[in-house]
Amino acid sequence: MPEYNALLSIKAAINDDTQSALASWDASTGYCAWRGVTCDPSRRHVTALDISNLGLSGTLSSDVGHLRYLRNLSVAANSFSGPIPVEISHSPNLRYLNLSNNGFNSSFPIQLSRLKNLQVLDLYNNNMTGEFPAQLSLLITLRHLNFGGNFFTGQIPPAIGTFSNLEYLSVSGNELTGYIPGEIGNLTELKELYIGYFNNFSGGIPKEIGNLSELIRFDAASCGLSGEIPVELSKLQNLDTLFLQVNGLSGSLTKELGKLRSLKSMDLSNNMLSGEIPPSFAELRNLTLLNLFRNKLTGSIPDFIGELPELEVLQLWENNFTGSVPQNLGTNGNLKEVDVSSNKLTGILPPNLCNGNKLQKIITLGNFLFGPIPESLGQCESLSRVRMGDNYLNGSIPKGLFSLPKLTQLELQDNLLSGTFPGTEKLSKSLGLICLSNNHLNGQLPSSIGNFAGVQKLLLDGNKFSGSIPSEIGNLQQLSKMDLSNNNFSGPILPEISKCKLLTYVDLSRNQFSSEIPTEITGMRILNYLNLSRNHLAGSIPASIASMQSLTSVDFSYNNLSGLVPSTGQFSYFNYTSFLGNPNLCGPYLWPCKEGNIGVQRPPKKGTLSPSMKLVLVLGLLVFSIAFAVVAIIKARSLKKTTEARAWKLTSFQRLDFTCNDILDCLKEDNIIGKGGAGIVYKGAMPNGEQVAVKRLASMSRAHVADFGLAKFLQDSGASESMSAIAGSYGYIAPEYAYTLKVDEKSDVYSFGVVLLELVTGKKPVGEFGDGIDIVQWVKKMTDGKKDEVLKILDSRLPTVPLHEVMHVFYVAMLCVEEQALDRPTMREVVQLLTELPKPASSNSGDSTVSESPATSNLASPATPPTKNSEDHQPESPDLLSI
Fold it and tell me: Given this model, what pLDDT does residue 832 score?
């Protein structure tokens, strides 16, 4: 009874059967009745053995080869290890072999290539090593081959093309290299092809892929592909899934992809694709998922995207899209996720994003969107994440937004939102993050804030909230980070804050808090950051804070605190700057306390100069400075007398004191003092002693450069033009010309951006900012990516111009002077942007003007990087001027 003994050997090689799955395998019953064993009813031979997913571990006995009549063998989803027994090849009738989801190792036994009837070979998710076996080509009857999730190396052999019956092929998740063989196009019956993930192929997608007319799913993600997407893919009329993400694909989105009418999911994200979304994509009417994020795509988001009837997921973040978000987006009623963050989008948000009440995520971080948040989002009960930070959104927070039952994350930071904190009693218990930083919100916090039972981060800094903090804030038992800094809160710091036992970060700085620091704060055992600076706190610093071992950073500076600074415990680690600005504090960080007098003056440190010596040094420096200034003034006046130019007015028929020959004698190389847009300027010394400037125009008075149309001029005049030919345009020329000596339309866009900056700032492109600094560099330095810093550089001669219009022109200018040419809009897009002036916030009685202060204007507070959630990618959104 060789089969009986073979089965017992298989059981004996299993060293762990915690579920007693093979308890029936004993001599008391016939082996045909054992679990997982199937026999031929007439001849009593074992024809199938299926012991998959039974929690077994051990090795697969080589005696499995004695099951000579076996047709199906599956040990999938267990914990078998060791090599695959070569004796399996002794079962010539084997058609189905599934060893997936185990720990089999070593190389693939080439003896298995003798199984001439094998149709399914599944080794997915094991630890197989060695080169991809070329001998598999002998298994000509194979229909399903899955080698994914192993450690195979080498190339996919060209012999792979001999599997004329193959319908399923997966080699993903290995360490394969080399080129994808063109012979793969011979697999004309193939329906599913998976070659991505952890492989690192050379070259691109072979055009022969277009021969796979039956292909339904093609996944070549994250496998090192380069080159362009072949147009031959358009032949795959049955394709419903195309995954090419995380590669190095370049070129434009080929319009031929619009012919894939059966396509449901397309992911081309994380590549280097450029250009615009082609109009042919409007034909993809079955598309449910469109991922194009992290590419270099430009242009606007086409309106037809909002008309795709089945679209559920749209992710376009981190590209260079301009224009507005399609206003019909969401009207199909199926939209679930939208992410258009980190682009250059403007305009208002679509009003019907949640038309079918299926929307779960809306992410628009880091754009230039303005206008109100759609009120309809306040009734979108399916919403779980709203991330709209770092835009120019205005108006109030939509009613009902805080009450959405599934909302877990709300980020509206760095906008122009106004109004009060919603005071509804019915608040979402699932909301974990509330970030409203750097807006214009005002009023008092409602007592209902204590109903946010699940909130973990409450970030309200950089607003205009006032009044006292409600005591109900102690109900936020899940709160770990609270930032209420830079507001107008007043009153005492409530001891109820100490009830939030999970707090690790508390920032109440830059407010109007008064009274004393509550001693209850020492009960917060895991607090590691505490900032109470720049308030009106009085009294002493509680000595019990020294026992808070988790506390690593504190700041009590610039208050009215008094008394002795504790020196024990955690206070021995704090920096002295944490106590500055409190005149009545004394102790180890400041100066010694005098008995009976807390407010003492700080004595000089050991080794410092005496007051009399300091006075002598100051007087000496003053005398030296005066003498130096006098000498400098005398020299400057004498130089001015010799070089000062006089106004020279010509009248009709005026007789000159020099001749044409005197002028021509000056046109020498040594006398060149500059090269302008229309010629060369020479210095000339006339016989009468006069110094004049002579400009020699180019032939036909043609300029050597026109800062608009520079690309056309250089292209027309040949590639040999040198930099000296455009010296007169310094300050307007795009930076890439310095190292490429090539210009195009985007060079003209840069020049136009410089002109816009001149218009907004009232300054010249060069010469006013120091050596080597032009207006673009100066603007970036002065604004530092912060919206409220822009007001400081605006031309003071624009007091009556609406501020929102000036800001919009400034934003367009900064787009035009992007350092990378690819990031700049086209002139057509610039014109479109300039015609899309934003409307001021409806809460204002009239347009704000340039003369307004930062506190009353439509500008946002200093921008802070938006909070990023790891599940949403997200990269930090670029600041306004991150170019």
Answer: 73
